[in-house]
Design the sequence.
């Protein structure tokens, strides 16, 4: 018998769960993969291997002192609106830090359009551009380069920051099923704010596992979900058997299509140390994509059956990305109007990102929002051999579209949030 255990060192306060099972959009209009990078702009690590852009962001953004998540897709979608307005060093920063190029930006637009056309509430992606109502500022901008429809472009009342912030917050709240509230404050808006770009992403998908409990490394029992007859074809072992990869598929929607899954990286039952963080953050692009690919995977052969145990978790985050993006090499975008010459004499002044997730035996509800503020340059027994996956220590999770390999969410759970009993 083999078990995977993950323990935590932080003490997070549980939040109250909400039940909202999900369905997912049809894959009938399958988009191309917006996360593919152009060969000319693929970053490499110190060993020369191609880095995965999403893992690169994870490494630089992650807060390991609490339950934490970010949405690579939401961030890239928001920044992709600016891509056609960039030039020179700023365009290079968009390519190397975020993996954006002509091909990926076009694919993001296609993915957004196909999601919108699916006419489902289980996945919603929406963008808005709020443009200063100051005519002097507005007349310097070429809004067409954003590629948005007319109904996606709104006036930004810079003379009434409170009302402007409220309008943006209503958009984010409505799109995310009220999972992200009070996204920005009026302090985000200034007299010289020329433009605010906002992406909002909502995800709600169901599965049907059993309720259970799990003993975390703090010795306490927590509510969990489990399956004692799980398929071995949904589990991989990596790192010489020290890390388990658990693929959890969401239930097919009404069209009998299943596009999405959660993949958990957690310490194996028999491993003595938990080095999921080190392993995950060191993955090359090829290795990560190979691990995430379960197509034609036959499953573990050395076991007779499989079980898994994963704690329920629910949490939210909100933080600025300015310093983190600058540390990754995005510097000129925050200081040079010359880099946005196709859009206007503007530079990025702030980037805020917020996420929410709740996962239990019924499925996952998650949301994300990314806001980019821009200013003008005028300012700056002989029992069967059982493979058990027990996620009772810090683990990493990835929510992705299995057809396109797009990573909607990446996160890290250090503490369950629902005490059992």
Sequence:
């Amino acid at each position: 018998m083999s078990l995977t255990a993950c323990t935590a060192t932080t003490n997070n306060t549980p939040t109250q769960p909400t039940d909202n099972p999900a369905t997912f959009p049809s894959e009938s209009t399958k988009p191309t993969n917006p996360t593919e990078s152009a060969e000319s702009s693929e970053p490499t690590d110190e060993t020369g291997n191609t880095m995965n852009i999403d893992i690169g962001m994870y490494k630089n953004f992650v807060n390991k002192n609490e339950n934490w998540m970010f949405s690579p897709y939401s961030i890239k979608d928001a920044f992709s609106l600016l891509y056609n307005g960039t030039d020179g060093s700023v365009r290079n920063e968009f390519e190397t830090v975020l993996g954006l190029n002509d091909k990926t930006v076009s694919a993001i637009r296609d993915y957004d359009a196909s999601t919108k056309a699916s006419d489902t509430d289980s996945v919603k992606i929406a963008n808005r551009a709020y443009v200063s109502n100051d005519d002097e500022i507005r007349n310097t901008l070429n809004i067409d380069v954003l590629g948005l429809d007319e109904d996606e472009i709104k006036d930004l009342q810079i003379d009434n920051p409170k009302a402007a912030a409220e309008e943006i917050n209503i958009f984010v709240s409505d799109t995310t099923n009220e999972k992200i509230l009070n996204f920005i404050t009026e302090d985000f808006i200034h007299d010289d704010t020329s433009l605010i770009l906002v992406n909002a992403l909502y995800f709600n998908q169901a599965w049907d596992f059993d309720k259970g409990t799990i003993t975390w490394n703090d010795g306490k029992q927590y509510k969990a979900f489990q399956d004692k007859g799980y398929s071995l074809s949904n589990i991989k072992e990596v790192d010489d058997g020290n890390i388990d990869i658990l693929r959890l598929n969401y239930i097919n929607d009404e069209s009998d299509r299943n596009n999405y899954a959660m993949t958990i990286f957690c310490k194996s039952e028999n491993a003595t140390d938990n080095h999921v963080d080190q392993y995950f953050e060191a993955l090359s692009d090829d290795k990560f994509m190979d691990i995430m690919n379960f197509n034609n995977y036959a499953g573990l052969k050395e076991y007779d059956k499989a079980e898994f145990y994963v704690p329920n978790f629910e949490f939210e985050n909100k933080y600025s990305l300015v310093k983190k993006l600058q540390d990754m090499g995005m510097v000129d975008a925050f200081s040079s109007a010359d880099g946005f010459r196709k859009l206007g004499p503007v530079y990025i002044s702030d980037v805020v990102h917020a996420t929410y997730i709740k996962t239990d035996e019924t499925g996952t509800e998650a949301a994300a929002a990314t806001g980019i503020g821009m200013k003008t340059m005028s300012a700056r027994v002989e029992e069967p051999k059982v493979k058990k996956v027990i996620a009772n220590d810090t683990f990493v999770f990835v929510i992705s579209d299995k057809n396109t390999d797009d990573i909607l969410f990446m996160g890290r759970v250090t503490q369950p949030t629902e005490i059992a009993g």
